[in-house]
Amino acid sequence: MTILGIDVGTSGIRAAAIDAGSLRPTTAIVKEHYALDFPEPDGVEVPVERVWNAIVAAVRQCGAKNFAGIGISCLTPALVLLDSADRPLGPCWLHLDRRSRTVARKVQAEVGDEFLNTVGNRPLPGGISATCWRQQADENPNLPRQVRRYLHLLSWIGWKLTGEFAIDPANASFSGLFGTVTDQKWSPRWCDYFGVRPDWLPPVLSGDATLGKLTTSAAIDLGLDPGVDVKMGTADTTCAIIAAGMRPGEILHSVGTTQVVAALTDNPHPDPRRLTRLLGIGDSFLRVTHNPVGGAALDWLHATCFHEQSAHEFFEIAIPQAINRQTNVRLDPPYLGGDRLEIEPAYAGFQGVTVTTPREDLLAAVLIAMREQHSVVVRNLGIGTTVRRVYLTGGAADLVRKLIPEYAHADIVPVIEGAVRGVARLFRI
Questions:
Q1: What residue ranges define each of the domains in the chain, with the CATH number in brackets?
Q2: In a designed cystine with 103, which of 36, 134, 179, 419 is the match (CB 3.0 to 4.6 A)?
Q3: pTM of the prediction?
């Protein structure tokens, strides 16, 4: 059985024909970029039609048409508001957006503990879509009268494909309106608190459930035959986990612009040092932590201090040479890539720098901080510090494998293009 896998990332689409048995692509994995908009310093958004156009372009480039079904993985959260005619009321606010800090501070001050213990997370700006909603509604008092549907991007894409509205449990967990660790239903308490009408919200559907059939209009756009099953889909991290076949006691380490470490659990036990959400399929929960020293920090150092080097020279020569370099320079605080788990902005600082400090010491300090913060991240997962198996995914996975001492004795399993391949597993669970 061949599945069309579509992975919607933060700034691009991946699409391929995937064999549901082996999870191997039977076509090239097509990558189609879409641009993000930055309307103000803390704003990160994208018009949903731009995302759809990128999906169309990627699917058409796959060169295959005969699919038994379509599966989707998607970043989360990403708020989409529709009016009574199902037209977008503005661009989609992405998880990187931080314009809702004012709302997040207020929620934390008023009901922070209650929110954490029922929703499973702190009211993070961008990381919880209800804070984005409340910020928009505060800025535009007419907005609540215009809204008919409160969705995440995955739900909107599902509607474009099938004409049906739903949301998976992983996305619902990051809405701020869902009892993730209580009754796993839309919460009247939090809907009332944030001013969201319950009838705006879609039904919650497991990520492996069939959302509907591909409509004729969507099939024409994509160059496919109508009528095939479309799965609800779920978060990109979840799809990578099910592609890997990960079990409790193991971790997924995704290495890219940011570093995300995730572990499965049957016990959600919310904690301010991590994110807690439903996996999106079945009854398991996912604990997620974030290393603030990730690829963005290395990209900044490359552009600032090693700009005459090509990316190959910097990542393949300069970084390996600096991994064991001794230096008195410290990156402290270490938040060179910010901190996704905090409401307030986080800033980094180099300590011990003089006018004679070579750039190689700055690079070594960043790598030391990345290594040290990894230990903190794993500890914050709350699953113990000895991990028997690590599933590594992302562009800098090889670097991290060499950098982290704990990985020297762990069973390291590379996961290549896990998000787009994992959607085929939705048809086998």
A1: 2-232 (3.30.420.40), 246-429 (3.30.420.40)
A2: 134
A3: 0.92
Residues 384/414/294/240 CA torsion (nearest 10 deg)? -80
- Alpha-carbon span 206 to 281, nearest angstrom: 5
- In order, the DSSP letters of 250-271 are -EEEEESSSEEEEEEES-----
* pLDDT value for 166: 98
- Which residues fall within 8 angstroms of residue 82, CB to CB, at 6 or more apart? 88, 89, 147, 148, 149, 151, 156
Contact 22, 167 (CB under 8 A): no
Please say whether the dihedral angle defined by the alpha carbons of residues 342, 344, 345 and 346, taken in this order, is positive or negative: negative
In angstroms and rounded to an integer, the radius of gyration of the C-alpha atoms of the chain is 21
Output 393 or 311, whichever has higher pLDDT.
Answer: 311
Q: Give the torsion through C-alpha atoms of 239, 241, 245, 248, to 10 deg.
A: -140
Q: Are 234 and 281 in contact (CB under 8 A)?
A: yes
- Within 8 A by CB and 6+ apart from 360, the residues are 318, 321, 322, 325, 327
- Amino acid at the residue 164: E
Mean pLDDT score, 279-296: 93
pLDDT in tens, 410-420: 888 988 888 99
Percent of the chain whose pLDDT exceeds 70 = 99
Residue 395 near residue 295 (C-beta atoms within 8 A):
yes
| 102 pLDDT more than 60 | yes
